[in-house]
Amino acid sequence: MDTLNRVFHLEDAHTTVKRELIAALTTFVSLSYILFVNPNILHAAGIDKGAAFTVTAVATAVGCFLMGFIANYPVALAPTLGSAAFFAYNVVIGMHINWQTALAAVLVASFLFILITVLKLREMVVNAIPADMKYAISAGIGLFIAFIGLQNGKLIVNNSSSLVGLGSFNNSQVWITLFGLVLTIILMAARVPGSIFIGMIVTAIFGIIIGQIPMPHNIISGAPSMAPTFGHAAFHIADINTPQLFMVVLTFLLVTFFDTAGTLIGMSQQAGMVDKNGKIPGIGRAFLSDSLAMVEGALMGTAPLGTSVESSAGIAMGGRTGLTAIFVGIFFLISMIFSPLLAVIPTTVTAPALVIVGVLMAGNLKYINWDHFEVALPAFLTVVGMSLTYSISDGLALGMIAYPITMIAARRHKEVSPMMYVLFFIFIIFFLITNMK
Length: 437
What we know:
By secondary structure, the chain is mainly alpha-helical. Helices cover 66% and strands 3% of the residues. It has one domain (2-214, 242-435).
C-alpha cells in the first residue's frame, strides 16, 4: 500500500486504492463495448476479427499502463471509434487502400505525434487555450457523451424528417435503458457510493431476468492470436509514397491531435487537475503517453488509440490517479479470457452511465463568462458543435476559429495569446482537409 502511495501519490490526490479500483471498474464496464465494436469496424476493412479482438484488448491495456505510469492520470487510452471508422470506411474502403498500408499511415502519424509532443508543441497549445474555452470543452464533451448514451440506449434514434427523434417504447432495449437510468438517478440523488457501477450491474441482471440479455454460454475462452495483424504496419511504411497517402497521414495526425487534446482537457477539468492559472500540470506526460500508445496500437494492428471519453465515468466515481488507468488495463487483459461474460454488458446497460456523467460534466457551463458575448459565442459553438457534428475535434475547431474573431471585434485582441492566432489558421486548414468532399 505504501508503495502504491509513493508511485501514484494517492494521499496527495485525496483518494484510496479502493476508490481507484471502483473508478477503474466503472471505466472498464463503460468502455468494454470497444472490445466488440472496434473488431467489427476493422473487420469491414479486411482485418481478421478474432485478431482484432485480442489486439483491441492488449493495445488498450498497454495504453492504460503507459498513461498510468508515465502521466499518473486516471484516463484510459483505447482505439477511438471515430478514427476506426475513418480508417476502415474512408481510407480502406473509400480510397481502395489495403489495410496494411493504412496501418502504416497510422504508424507514420504516430511518429510525428511523438515528435511534436517531445517539442512540447501540444503542451503549448493546451496551455494557450483560455480558461473559459477549457470549461466549454469539458461541458461540450459532457453533452456529447450524454448524446452517445441516449443513442446507445435507443432513447434517441435517427429520424428522416428531423434528423433525430425519440425512440419507440415498443423496443425492449429502451426499457432496459430507462430502468438503468431511473435506478442510477435514484442512487446518485441518494449519494450512494459507487452508484453508477451498481446501476450498470443491476441493469444487466434486469435485462437477463426479462430475457432481453442472453446468459453467457461459456465462462472462459481462449484469446485469438494477434499474428494476422502484428507488425504489418512497420513492413509497409515504404508504401506511403503518394500525395494521397501523405494526406491520409496528415488527417490521422490532425484528427487524433484535436480529439485527444479536447478530451484530455475535459477529463482534467472534471478531475480537478487544472490549476488556478488554467494550466494542467503534467499534461505533457499525458500527451507522451497517448503518442506512445498510438505507436504500439499501430504495430499490433489497430486504428489510432486516443483518450477515452468513457474515462469520465471513472473520474465521476472518484478516480484521481494513474492507479485507475493501471486497474483498467489489468481488467482489459483479464477480459481476453472472460470475453463471453462481457456479452451481458451491451450498450443499453452502459448508456445510463454516459448520460449521468454528461450531466455532471455539463456543470462546468456555470464557470463560463456568459455576460461577455465575445467569450460566450465561441464557448457556445464549442459546446453544441461537439454534439451536432458528432465530433469532439469539429466542435473544438468551431470554437477556436470563432474566439479570435470575436475578441478582435470586441477590441480585446491583446488578451489573445499568439498561439490562439496560430490555432485559428490551423483549424481552418483542419476543416479544409477533413471536410472537403
